[in-house]
Specification:
Blueprint: H1 4-10, H2 13-16, H3 24-27, E1 38-39, H4 67-77, E2 84-87, H5 89-101, E3 108-111, H6 118-126, E4 129-132, H7 146-150, E5 158-162, H8 174-183, E6 189-193, E7 215-220, E8 233-236, H9 239-248, H10 256-265, H11 271-294, E9 300-301, E10 308-312, H12 316-325, E11 328-329, E12 331-332, E13 342-346, H13 350-365
Helix pairs in contact: 4-10, 5-6
Bound molecules: pyridoxal-5'-phosphate.
């Protein structure tokens, strides 16, 4: 007999009907076999690095925050080690921040949609309320509604800003981020999610940490470092914040093989590989954006500062399905506010993008869709 009755009775009520985050991998499982499709739906990097693992100490629990890893990230990010917390991806950072700064069923987070979905999912999971102050659209969905933010001072405990933004690819103006930090100076932590910052590294706000006690910066090795499968991210903030988050995180958050491999990726030998990947990706992104903007079926291409391009087209289902038929996965973003008819393409390899373009061109030329 199924025991779903007891499960539904005992589980927190709001979880029973909650829809979990539809991650790219939950929508389309890789099943350990990633060569059978072209994966352009999760903003991963297409190429592998080459690493060796010693697995010397796997019989021991790892250090809480392994020195080699924290020191390597400290050198890379130019933040003191005490300002860094390594986590199971930036996603764990998001969850920890909400659990640390929001009382369940009492406090709220603030998000600026369209934005990354995990802020809301983590808040829901924890029982925190979600206040939405949408990005403004007249200028291309890249500006904060500062008046809207001001009206929420005192009502929210954590503000999530995503810059470069997923799924838009836009950067928020730095002056506006600074205004938001000042507005919430005494009442809320302001999180600047910099998951994609390597693609425009001069735009980081990490150096402001010494000026703002309420600033938290999120980083990850999943994007520019091509290590999404490793699950390693970093939370940067003043020591007091890091110490508070350290009370909430699991006792051994970073497994020994993760620490070993991530430290290597951040070392002198591998960093140039990351920087050259970024420059190749940026060039391919420019080419893809310019190709898209020349297509008659493409209505709008969003300027990007990340490893993906968002565009709007009245033919979004046709394009999505034509690609899917040929085992090419991109991401439909049309359910997000202000993003009707928008699709997002991760910038894969030159070869993958060239196959994608061929498939789209071929689909239009062999159907009457455009002339309908
Ligand atoms: C804006 C943003 N933040 C955080 C993450 C999560 O990164 P991680 O893989 O480190 O959990 C993503 C992943 O897509 C993202 O787009």
């Amino acid at each position: 007999m199924s025991n779903s009755t007891i499960v539904n009775k005992l589980a927190r009520e709001e979880l029973v009907d909650m829809i979990p985050y539809e991650s790219a991998r939950r929508l389309h499982a890789g099943n350990g076999e990633f060569n059978n499709k072209i994966w352009l739906n999760a903003n991963e990097a297409s190429g592998l690095g080459s690493y060796s693992l010693s697995a010397d100490c796997v019989n021991r629990y790892p250090d809480f925050q392994p020195d080699s890893l924290i020191n390597a990230y400290s050198t890379y990010s130019q933040q003191p080690a005490e300002n860094i917390l390594a986590t199971r991806g930036a996603d764990e950072g998001i969850e920890l921040i909400i659990r640390t700064f929001c009382k369940a069923y009492e406090d709220n987070i603030l998000i600026c949609p369209p934005t990354y979905g995990m802020y809301a999912i983590s808040a829901e999971n924890h029982g925190a309320g979600i206040v939405k102050v949408p990005l403004q659209s007249e200028t291309g969905i890249n500006e904060l509604d500062l008046e809207g933010l001001k009206s929420q001072v005192g009502n929210v405990n954590v503000v999530f800003l995503c810059s470069p933004g997923n799924p838009t690819g836009n950067l928020l103006p730095q002056a506006q981020i600074k205004e938001a930090l000042a507005l919430f100076k005494d009442t809320a932590m302001v999180v600047v999610d910099e998951a994609y910052i390597e693609f425009c590294s001069d735009k980081t706000v990490a150096s402001w940490i010494s000026d703002f006690d309420n600033l938290i910066v999120l980083r990850t090795l999943s994007k520019a470092f091509a290590l999404a499968g490793l699950r390693c991210g970093f939370t940067l903030a003043n020591r007091e914040v890091i110490q508070m988050l350290s009370k909430v995180i699991a006792p051994y958050p970073i497994s020994a093989p993760v620490a070993e491999l991530a430290s290597k990726a951040l070392g002198e030998q591998h960093l140039p590989v990351m920087t050259s990947r970024v420059s190749v990706t940026n060039t391919l992104g420019e080419k893809l954006s310019s190709w898209l903007s020349q297509q008659t079926w493409c209505e709008q291409v969003f300027p990007t500062h990340a490893n993906f391009v968002l565009f709007r087209t009245p033919y979004k289902d046709f394009i999505f399905n034509s690609l899917l038929e040929k085992n090419i996965l991109i991401r439909d973003q049309s359910k997000q506010p202000q993003l009707a008819n928008c699709l997002r393409i991760s910038i894969g390899s030159e070869e993958e993008l060239s196959t994608l373009k061929d498939v789209i061109e071929n689909a239009f030329s062999t159907s009457n869709t455009l002339s309908e």
